[in-house]
Amino acid sequence: MANAVSELERERDLPLGRIRFLTQIETPRALQRLAAIASAHPRMVAMALGPEDFSAAVGRCPRIRPSFDAEPSRAVCCPCGRVAPAWAS
């Protein structure tokens, strides 16, 4: 993928390396390999948990508890069925 992105940057006269990667962690196996994934390529700048796919992989269903009083757009679904607020930095 990195090679294809580099070619795209060259074709469009973008600085090489300008496009960065953010990957979704969607399986327990990927969760165990965070360090290897993070260092896989210099374009890798962030990782995020893909809650729906991760939850499905561990046999759970993500859900927001009705008692959570934050706006749904400010919440993060967690694979354990709990919700954590997503604080702006």
Short description:
This protein has one domain.
Structure overview:
- With 89 residues, this protein is of the alpha+beta class.
- The protein has one domain (20-85).
- The chain has four helices and four strands, in the order H-E-H-H-E-H-E-E.
- Strand 3 (75-77) and strand 4 (83-85) form a beta hairpin.
- The protein is elongated.
Tags for this entry?
two-stranded parallel ribbon, elongated, 19% strand, 89 residues, two-stranded antiparallel sheet, 4 helices, alpha+beta
**Helix/strand structural class:** alpha+beta
What is the total tally of β strands?
4
Net shape: elongated
Radius of gyration, whole Å: 17 Å
User: How would you describe the oligomerization state of the chains in this entry?
Assistant: single chain
Strand order of the largest sheet: 1-2
Quote the beta fraction: 15-25%
The total count of helices amounts to: 4
Succession of helices and strands: HEHHEHEE
Task: Kindly report the average pLDDT value.
Answer: 78
Distance, first to last CA = 30 Å
Main sheet makeup: 2 strands, parallel
In total, the number of domains comes to: 1
Low-confidence stretches: 73-89
Helix content bin: 25-40%
